[in-house]
Automatic annotation (TrEMBL):
<feature type="transmembrane region" description="Helical">
    <location>
        <begin position="206"/>
        <end position="224"/>
    </location>
</feature>
<dbReference type="InterPro" id="IPR017452">
    <property type="entry name" value="GPCR_Rhodpsn_7TM"/>
</dbReference>
<keyword id="KW-1003">Cell membrane</keyword>
<feature type="transmembrane region" description="Helical">
    <location>
        <begin position="236"/>
        <end position="254"/>
    </location>
</feature>
<dbReference type="InterPro" id="IPR000725">
    <property type="entry name" value="Olfact_rcpt"/>
</dbReference>
<dbReference type="InterPro" id="IPR000276">
    <property type="entry name" value="GPCR_Rhodpsn"/>
</dbReference>
<dbReference type="GO" id="GO:0005886">
    <property type="term" value="C:plasma membrane"/>
</dbReference>
<keyword id="KW-0472">Membrane</keyword>
<protein>
    <recommendedName>
        <fullName>Olfactory receptor</fullName>
    </recommendedName>
</protein>
<feature type="transmembrane region" description="Helical">
    <location>
        <begin position="63"/>
        <end position="89"/>
    </location>
</feature>
<dbReference type="InterPro" id="IPR050402">
    <property type="entry name" value="OR51/52/56-like"/>
</dbReference>
<feature type="transmembrane region" description="Helical">
    <location>
        <begin position="266"/>
        <end position="287"/>
    </location>
</feature>
<keyword id="KW-0716">Sensory transduction</keyword>
<feature type="domain" description="G-protein coupled receptors family 1 profile">
    <location>
        <begin position="43"/>
        <end position="256"/>
    </location>
</feature>
<dbReference type="GO" id="GO:0004984">
    <property type="term" value="F:olfactory receptor activity"/>
</dbReference>
<dbReference type="GO" id="GO:0071396">
    <property type="term" value="P:cellular response to lipid"/>
</dbReference>
<comment type="similarity">
    <text>Belongs to the G-protein coupled receptor 1 family.</text>
</comment>
Length: 304
């Protein structure tokens, strides 16, 4: 009986969809996705290479930026192949195991990115509130420990998800509305009671992204409090200017997530693409434009 069940589980297939369109337009739709993929991989790889090879960039802000770049690279590599598979090769089928692996990595990387954005908010608070002790507080070993805690917390929360989904029987059409597998969508395909999964999914979301967003908000309240106490208007603007890149990254990450639950099906698909594909594309561009030091290094690398 167990062997029969294992065979059934292995034979389960999900159908990925995405933006509603005719087959003859798929090639045109794939062009922007290819463009985003190439720019995301190239942009984040360039940032990682420059930060690693240039000792002058071995500062807390750039180390956190490297963490963000690694996470964004992971998200691009995890999601884009199945998207391009649909629009370039009309390959819509995905096995249960491959789908569960994608669920694990997408949600793991999203939760790690949420933690990295929190660490970057803490970095900006220390830099503005206590600039003289900034390098002493955020030492490389301490940053490494903070990064490890962020990864472990996300891992502990996300690891049960594939196992919770694997125990289900799937007896529906198994047609997913996105071009990749997400926990909530796969869960809804089950013909079993999903109460435990729903509660756990909500708990992880609140404990990770809910808590992180609240702590980020508190960090910025403290930053504003510190900035407003600065007598010089010029110094005040300079301090706030160091937060612009991080604020852009926060808006790109959290805005689609907040809007997803209150949208039409088409808008949900579109916001799903934006939440997973746009941050890896835009983050390296924004940070390169806003950081004079990093921008100069990138220009010098390509001129050589």
């Amino acid at each position: 009986m167990s062997a029969v069940n294992d065979t059934k589980l292995k034979s389960i297939k999900f159908l990925l969809t995405g933006l509603p369109s005719h087959r003859d337009t798929h090639l045109w739709i794939s062009i922007p996705f290819c463009f985003m993929y190439v720019i995301s991989i190239t942009g984040n790889s360039v940032i990682l290479f420059i930060v690693k090879t240039d000792p002058s960039l071995h500062e807390p802000m750039y180390i956190f930026l490297s963490m963000l770049a690694v996470t964004d690279l992971g998200l691009s590599i995890t999601t884009i192949p199945t998207i391009l598979g649909i629009y370039l090769f009309n390959s819509r089928e995905i096995s249960l195991d491959a789908c569960l692996a994608q669920v694990f990595f997408i949600h793991l990387l999203q939760y790690i990115e949420s933690s990295v954005l929190l660490l970057m908010a803490f970095d900006r608070f220390i830099a503005i509130h206590n600039p003289l002790r900034y390098a002493f507080i955020l030492t490389p070993p301490r940053i490494a420990k903070m990064g490890l805690v962020a990864v472990l917390r996300a891992m502990v929360l996300i690891l049960p998800l594939p196992f919770l989904l694997k125990r289900f029987q799937y007896c529906r059409a198994n047609v997913l509305s996105h071009s990749y597998c997400l926990f909530q969508e796969v869960m809804k395909m089950a013909c079993s009671d999903i109460t435990v999964n729903s509660i756990y999914g909500l708990f992880t979301k609140l404990f990770q992204m809910g808590l992180d967003s609240m702590l980020i908000f508190l960090s910025y309240v403290m930053i504003l409090k510190t900035v407003l106490s600065i007598a010089s208007h010029k110094e005040c603007l300079r301090a706030l200017n160091t937060c612009v890149s991080h604020l852009c990254a926060l808006l790109l990450f959290y805005t689609p997530e907040i809007s997803l639950s209150k949208s039409s099906p088409f808008l949900q698909i579109l916001l799903g693409y934006i939440s997973l594909l746009v941050p890896p594309l835009i983050n390296p561009i924004v940070y390169s434009l806003k950081s004079k030091h990093l921008r100069a290094k990138i220009i010098r690398m390509f001129i050589k």
